[in-house]
Amino acid sequence: MAVRGRLLDLNVSPDGEGIELWLREEDGSVRSHAVRWRPSIYVTGPESELERLARAFERSEMVEVREDPGGRPVRALRIRVGFGERREVATRIEELGGYRSLRVHNVDVPVLQQFLYENGVFPTALVELDPRSGSLRALDSREDLEYDVGWIRTAQLEVFPEAGGRVPSFDDRLREVRVVACGEEAVLDGDEVSVLEGLAGLLARWDPDVLLVRGGDQFVMRYLLHRARCIGMKLEMGRAPSRNRPGPPEVYWSYGRVYRRHRPFRLRGRVHVDPENSFTFAHTGLHGVIEVARTCVVPLHDAARYTIGQCMTSLQYEVAHRWGVLVPSKPTRTLYLRLSDLLLMDRGGLTLDHRPGVYWNVAELDFQSMYPMIMTRFNVSAETVNCSCCATDGIPIPEMGGHTCRRNRGLVPEAIGLPLRKRLAYKRLIRSLGPADSAVYKARADALKWVLVSSFGYLGFRKAKFGSRLAHMAVCAHARAALLRAVRVAEENGFEVVHGIVDSLWVRREGATEEDYARLAAEVEEATGLPVNLEGVYRWIAFLPSRTDRMRPVNGRYFGVTIDGRVKCRGIEARRRDTPDLVREMQLEMLGRLARARSPEELRDAALDCIGLLRRYVAQLVLGRVDPERLVLTRVLSRDPGAYRVRSQTALAARSLAALGAEVGAGSAVRYVITPSGPLPYPHFRPHDFSSTAYVGLLVRAADTLLSVVLGPSSLPKFMCFS
């Protein structure tokens, strides 16, 4: 009899012969089901070579596929291999072909994702499984917006070792465990045996599907199992025994920042999420993780830890599987350009510099998901740029010359089509509902936003399997043309363009109303063929200058207040992750006072009031009436502590942490308080004193960011020389 249930988790079965599925079945219980299955690799080359190769592999068959998204069908040998054997078998096959005649594909597709693609299912889907044949099918769709996740039970786990303020280690005894689940909270304390047995009992009684453990991948999960072994107890955090051997953390760069990702600690039958090791969870919570898992066809465990580029890759792999396109082992597209052509074509996004200052009655027009929209609207993909089938009637690429295909849909536009459609639909739902009712939709939309953001960058990534620098440059060319067309439309309607950056335009006109700006947005949308949103109308907005040259603008640094009273700011201290809470609180309080101004005179008066506010915060510091917790700076290391040549505050704090036994390296976040004797890692040291001079300097710098553009740099009090 067929089994129906929600697909919670999947992993390679313990015997290595298939996939183990964990389903929340119709009676409410979670059960595992084994499905016999093996991953596949594909080999292309001369048919005689493939026939000879087929005789060496028992589980093989000839199939018809495409080596490239725009290529013709070819014959390939599909070989089923054991888990963990793909790379070894691929290398052996390439050696047999002299690394020339035989080409191996799909070696890098993650095996669990390959299983999901082949069966057309995805995490949290309602599925039907035939235990006899192992056939599996989804009963709902990835397109669904109103899907049920109420069946997922979540528990939050906090662990407190007896570390005495030091960096915790495996040798520290377990002092306390706190668990929150099913609307209840339990605090387990006493001796280690009682605490660990109580934890095992709670997990059995509450039986959560998702376990949220802050620091779980880096330390907590291994620590709990180690302490259990020390007392001779076998503690299972999942629904079945699992073997975890996490390797060293992975360090990578993404959009100019270093990230440190710890290897995942996986459970069987229960999803473990470490909020400190999850980009998606940190920005969008569990609802965002679930949305990414469903849309990108990635197991929940992986969706919580993948980079946005890896999620984007899964979308492309899924389309490739559906279209019968092979995934190459190595990217093969090489672009050769003359220097003159490169200077013309590789120009990035368009920026129209502002003149620093305060502007009144300004509207912000935003192209919605501009780059993904361009990729779908103009069919930009590696195989569609300068295709042979549309040499005379293709979609022209501005400035660069060349064209994209009109006849065949590109793989990349197809891959981003689903997240783009869903995000726009979620945005419509958010606008039609109140903030309380739209929180879940906002989390889902934000998660898809990050995936779509990566789609453009990944198109030009040198390691992308379906990437192309030429396609990447074509998207930029369309974006520049669209922004210039928007500028022309605005100026033809009597609007002044104050600032423009890639996909946003700030315009103003004396006496213009919100309706006038809405009509302008509609005209720009009609002229460009891309969706344009009136992001807001500002009562006033301040565009900021460089600190080193007051006449030079800094794009992406501004603050202002909309006509409905919303404060919006970018690039200032209050938006930075490394800003101490005290500085952030002062700057936000200042913004609140400035937001009440309705005329240039009122704005200047409010700025003068803010100087008194600054004095109050400075007085708190000088008198020592500040909790050290509000002074903590958080900085992310760009390299290992020993690799710093300059003895900066961050480097010194990182070295102190390393000396305490903490695992600190590139991508690690270091928290510290500045004291007269140097930086002290927090909370491992509780400072009795702090450097008031250093923190006064930070307060003055944050005040200068807001007030100098209103009052002028020379109008600020003399004590601002602390900066």
Features:
723 residues; Nucleotidyltransferase, domain 5; Palm domain of DNA polymerase; Topoisomerase I, Chain A, domain 4; 28 strands; 36% helix
Give a structural overview.
- With 723 residues, the chain is an alpha+beta fold.
- Among the domains are: 163 residues, 2-Layer Sandwich (Nucleotidyltransferase, domain 5); 221 residues, Palm domain of DNA polymerase (Alpha-Beta Complex), CATH 3.90.1600.10; 117 residues, B family DNA polymerase, thumb domain (Topoisomerase I, Chain A, domain 4).
- The protein is 36% helix and 23% strand.
- The protein is built from 18 helices and 28 strands.
- The strands form 7 sheets. It has a 7-stranded antiparallel sheet. Strands 3-2-1-8-9 form a 5-stranded antiparallel sheet. It has a 5-stranded mixed sheet with strand order 12-11-10-13-16.
- The C terminus is likely disordered.
Structure described in brief:
It contains 18 helices and 28 strands.
Topology:
Elements: E1 3-12, E2 18-25, E3 30-36, E4 40-44, H1 47-54, E5 60-66, E6 73-80, H2 86-96, E7 103-105, H3 111-119, E8 126-129, E9 136-138, E10 154-161, E11 174-181, E12 184-189, H4 192-206, E13 210-213, H5 216-230, E14 250-254, E15 257-261, E16 271-273, H6 279-296, H7 300-303, H8 308-323, H9 339-345, E17 351-352, E18 357-367, H10 370-377, E19 395-396, E20 403-404, H11 411-432, H12 439-459, H13 469-492, E21 496-501, E22 504-508, H14 514-528, E23 532-545, E24 553-562, E25 567-570, H15 581-594, H16 600-622, E26 633-636, H17 649-659, E27 669-675, E28 678-681, H18 692-711
Helix pairs in contact: 3-8, 6-8, 6-12, 8-11, 8-12, 10-11, 10-13, 11-12, 13-14, 15-16, 15-18, 16-18
